Amino acid sequence: xxxxxxxxxxxxxxxxxxxxxxxxxxxxxxxxxxxxxxxxxxxxxxxxxxxxxxxxxxxxxxxxxxxxxxxxxxxxxxxxxxxxxxxxxxxxxxxxxxxxxxxxxxxxxxxxxxxxxxxxxxxxxxxxxxxxxxxxxxxxxxxxxxxxxxxxxxxxxxxxxxxxxxxxxxxxxxxxxxxxxxxxxxxxxxxxxxxxxxxxxxxxxxxxxxxxxxxxxxxxxxxxxxxxxxxxxxxxxxxxxxxxxxxxxxxxxxxxxxxxxxxxxxxxxxxxxxxxxxxxxxxxxxxxxxxxxxxxxxxxxxxxxxxxxxxxxxxxxxxxxxxxxxxxxxxxxxxxxxxxxxxxxxxxxxxxxxxxxxxxxxxxxxxxxxxxxxxxxxxxxxxxxxxxxxxxxxxxxxxxxxxxxxxxxxxxxxxxxxxxxxxxxxxxxxxxxxxxxxxxxxxxxxxxxxxxxxxxxxxxxxxxxxxxxxxxx
Length: 473
Known about the structure:
CATH class of the largest domain: Alpha Beta
Number of domains: 2
Number of strands: 16
Strand content: 15-25%
Largest sheet: 8 strands, mixed
Radius of gyration: 25 Å
CATH topology of the largest domain: Rossmann fold
Strand order of the largest sheet: 8-7-11-10-9-12-13-16
Distance between the termini: 41 Å
CATH superfamily of the largest domain: HUPs
Shape: elongated
CATH architecture of the largest domain: 3-Layer(aba) Sandwich
């Protein structure tokens, strides 16, 4: 179940109460347009009573010809997509302003709510999903702001999916007028009356004058932190991306790390690993994607998840031109399953030799009936590989996947994975950076020992010093 804020007990979380509160607010007036799963959001407002004071129009254009005549055609030919949602929001909001701005006194905050959804069909394996959004004036006669989310509908029954969609629609519209002072509270309120077994919110994006204090990346971080989604993706420009659109049918090269801060070792793993990855059968620049992956476990401070620490790492990786995946998948087999949802092509996860040793620790898999063996079976398939980056031990010798010190009980399991090329070593690597470890750099930063500077990319060092990151003073 999704986590909730313990201080939310006295606030309105009931769907009918939220709809009624909006209906009784004489400032708010707008339209609701819903495509694909019934008029589930507008239904709540009509049933709550007083909807005539809030809703100027509701509509649902199911026929494609009608929908295209109103909103225009999509180049992709799809109807359940973000571009369709934006056309709906803009069209309905512009109509409101055109037809009603001169007819209502300047104490009205107009809004347009829209969704475009595909529910899960009978006997189909794919989950239902949809785009929801609100274009709204936070204050009467003020500039418009916009919130867009993408959801996965996880209920098996279509009626349950429709019910879920109606609830989150009300939550979203209510949050736009009653939760915009607190970004984290805004996100948490979207799950009122719902659980993560019914719905996943895997993307949220905001823009506009009234939401300048929001950062879409922190909103995405909040989704993962509170188990409202499994992972979020950020591009180098800081945009939040929807995982299905980024990963669908791609060959994926992923580097897991703490990146606190990104080091020359990380850069070497990315550059050498990607070069090796492109030699794999069927992999090209055009059909592949590279990700730096952070788990929320790697974002933990001493007592809690530190959003400032998170933003620092994401910003540094963005400056290096990297796309970032933040997940709640601490175990590699769970990350493998996440990728398998979107692609059947090759997935390579790069890791250091120390991390490979950790992979074999049976204590990590006590929650699995089959323990370590089950985790290995879940992790590897014909299209999953691990690239192992060597380390230099205390004697100065390089340790890779072939001379890895493992207990005798794991010898034959490890040999099987090597011989079937589920685990392969990096073909090349820079021997001049093997002495670099993030933990040592952090100690040097905190103690004002500038010998850490040559251990990270120049742009990373410059930013750490200028912004006083990671305890630099």
